[in-house]
Amino acid sequence: MRKETWVTGLALFAMFFGAGNLIFPPYLGMESGNLWPLGLAFFVLIDVVMACLGIYALAAAGGGEIAFRRTIGKVPANILNTAAIVCTGILIAMPRTAATTYEMAIVPLFGSSVDLLPFSLAFFALVCVLTITESRVVDIIGKVLTPLLVVGIGALIICGIVNPIGPIGDPISPTVVQDGISAGYQAMDIICVIGYCIVLQNALKADGIKDRKSQLVILSLASVIAAILLTLIYGGLTYLGATTNQTFGPGLDQAALIVAITQRLMGDTGVIILGIVVLLACLTTAIGLISATAEYFRQLTHSRVSYRFGVIFCVVAGVLICNLQLENIIRWASPVLAMVCPPFMTTIVLILFARFIPSKRLYQGAALGAFLASLPIALHDAFGLCAFVEKAFLFSYGFSWVPVAIIGGVIGALIGMAEKRKREPAKASSG
Question: 3-323 in CATH: which number?
Answer without folding.
Answer: 1.20.1740.10
